[in-house]
Amino acid sequence: MAKKVESYNEATEKLRRIVADIERGDLDVDILSENVKEATRLIKLCKEKLYKVDEEVKKVLEELDA
User: Fold this and answer.
1) Which of 22, 25, 30, 42 could pair covalently with 11 via S-S, beta carbons 3.0-4.6 A apart?
2) Phi, psi (5° rounding) for residue 25?
3) pLDDT at residue number 2
4) Which residue has the higher pLDDT, 12 or 25?
5) Around 36, how many Cα atoms within 13 Å sit in the side-chain half-sphere?
6) What confidence tens digit (pLDDT) does each residue in 45-57 have?
């Protein structure tokens, strides 16, 4: 079964939780490693979503100028 892709807001909320956990400093090394991997995945997801939205907005604005 395919995993549901998070929305931008869901991804940023997960990132906030991961950062808070890391800042507390009481994570086991194995859990820290997993959190860093998950944070990396979420950051890539957010960047892709932001890039896609930016391109779509640029396209709409170009169509308005035409």
Assistant:
1) 42
2) 75, 15
3) 61
4) 12
5) 8
6) 999 999 999 999 9
**CB proximity list for 18: less than 8 A, separation 6 or greater:** 35, 38, 39, 42
Q: Could you write out the DSSP letters of every residue in 6-55?
A: PPHHHHHHHHHHHHHHHHHT---HHHHHHHHHHHHHHHHHHHHHHHHHHH
Burial of residue 49 (CB within 10 Å: 0-12, 13-18, 19+) is: middle
In 3-state terms, what secondary structure has residue 60? helix
Query: Rounded CA gap, 19 and 35, in Å?
Result: 9
